[in-house]
Amino acid sequence: MRYFDYDEEEIQRGNKVPYDAEPIARSRNYKQPSPKQSGTSKVVVFLLVILIAFNVVLGFLFLKSNMGETGRVTVENYYDIYNDSVSSSYMVSKALPSSVCIASGYNDTVTSSNISYSNFQQMNSKGSGVITSINKANGDMTIVTCEHVVTGNTNAVYVLLFDSYRPIKATYVGGIRSKDIAVLKVSGSSEVKNSSALAAEVADSMYVSMGDMVLAIGNPMSGGFDTCMGHIRKPQTLVTVTNVGVERVISTDAPINSGNSGGGLFNAKGQLIGIVNAKIESDTIDCVSFAIPSNLAMSIAGSIERNYGDAKHAVLGVEFATSDETRDSQDLDGIVLSDTVFVQSVVDGSAADKAGLQKNDIVIGFSYHDNVVVDMLTMYSFEDHAYNMNVGDKVTFTVKRGSSTLNFTVTIAQTV
Fold this sequence. Notes:
By secondary structure, the chain is α+β, with helices and mostly antiparallel strands. It folds into three domains: 1-20 and 86-307, Thrombin, subunit H (Beta Barrel); 44-85; 318-411, Pdz3 Domain (Roll). The protein contains nine helices and 20 strands. The protein has a six-stranded antiparallel barrel. A six-stranded antiparallel barrel has the order 3-4-5-8-7-6. Strands 18-17-19-20 form a four-stranded antiparallel β-sheet. The protein is globular, with a radius of gyration of 25 Å.
């Protein structure tokens, strides 16, 4: 059981929050609707018919104006027509194929010789995961989940695909407890070859906005695949994890339960924006749940794969901070509020110091690996990508210094 102290003004520090608390049962009395009154006049009926016909014609013209070259309303056009207000079923159809249930840890009931669908959920630990890469021809896939889902049971981890009833043995690649991210691998599986499973499409979690519709898919209460809907409460917030430290997370009101940990939090397009990892338990608080931002989770997962189970990130020798000033960043989906980020301090002799970065430089953004360009929307923007960088990589920062806009190229000299 992991405990969290939630760091918001309305909650006093010191409240411990177990992530996997059971939901509170509620009942509600329903009344049947009253029957409609009859006796509508013929005149009113005639006017209604005219109004309906008028709306049908307008609807036809509207759809025709949004048809693709083939003359049909495509999925993409459908999404645009309704201004991102797509149905929950569309979100599920996009996100579910990349979701897996996870169970780990042999016991007196389940052993390596009798693992089956019927006893999959009887293993010691249950959770969820997200497929981040898949090779159908070879039967291979990579899965990202939470470290606490498999801790202590890494030699006995099984996953269940969304369209299969046969658990698949997975190999634990590695994980990092302080960030609660772990990576699993499946190799040469016939279930993968024959499945309709897909890798998740990953969104830029820096462009998550307060109020965005979200979908969580996982294995809540060890009941198999399940979904829940909600909205973003806060795109960035901090929670203190007992015996671990501070974690940066997305806050949502989606009703997360035990077993959702490690599963995906998806946006209205069915794209991955976070890895679900915690919730608040309180008699006075409902539906306050958390997810590790997708940028950070995928960056850490990639480092774990490259470094044979260990996660390492680039060291700049810079401490970033934010001013009281905010700025608007126009995204395709709307306006994203962002911070003005500046260099608070530079370590003497560090890679950043040698490149020429100075205290009070306002950081506009940075680029690396020739084709990755990142806007410095918050003080965490660099951290989200630092796990993608290796010693020798060059990172070019664009900064404002006084009235000038300057570029400085930092050569990464250290990873930890």
